[in-house]
Specification:
Elements: H1 3-6, H2 15-35, H3 41-69, H4 78-97, H5 105-125, H6 131-134
């Protein structure tokens, strides 16, 4: 095998891009959380919940880089689910707080399944952590 054939093919959706998207997602959630302090209590609760879930999944996406660094390469697929699901969840809550629509259990459920898929990918990828150290 040549070096060219063993080199990992660089894609547009690489670790560097996922980490940047996770950082932007975390920033957006932090801003929403800070602004929620100035909203009426009933609206503030909805925004806070959306922002907390969004932030939590942004941090999990950043943790995927750590997983990959210790041998769990399959974790590279999780940020798409973690960020996509949390963004859908948060935007749905932000829109409901703004009065654009009500909270729909179907959308919340779908977002939860997408986010849970990201967690399952990370769990499955964890089986390869430090495998090279055991050889």
């Amino acid at each position: 095998m040549t070096a060219a054939s063993t080199a990992r093919k660089e894609t547009r959706w690489n670790r560097r891009l996922w980490m940047r998207l996770a950082t932007i997602n975390a920033l957006a959630s932090a801003v929403a959380l800070m602004l929620s302090a100035y909203l009426p209590e009933d609206v503030s609760t909805v925004v806070r919940f959306g922002a907390q879930v969004q932030f939590m999944h942004s941090m999990a996406s950043i943790a995927c880089a750590t997983f990959m660094n210790v041998g769990a390469d399959a974790a590279r697929h999780a940020p798409a689910f973690l960020l996509g699901g949390s963004l859908l969840f948060a935007v749905h809550h932000y829109g409901a707080a703004a009065g654009l629509w009500g909270l729909a259990n179907g959308i919340i459920g779908f977002a939860a399944v997408v986010m849970a898929s990201g967690w399952m990918i990370m769990f499955a990828a964890g089986r390869n952590i430090d495998r090279s150290c055991q050889d």
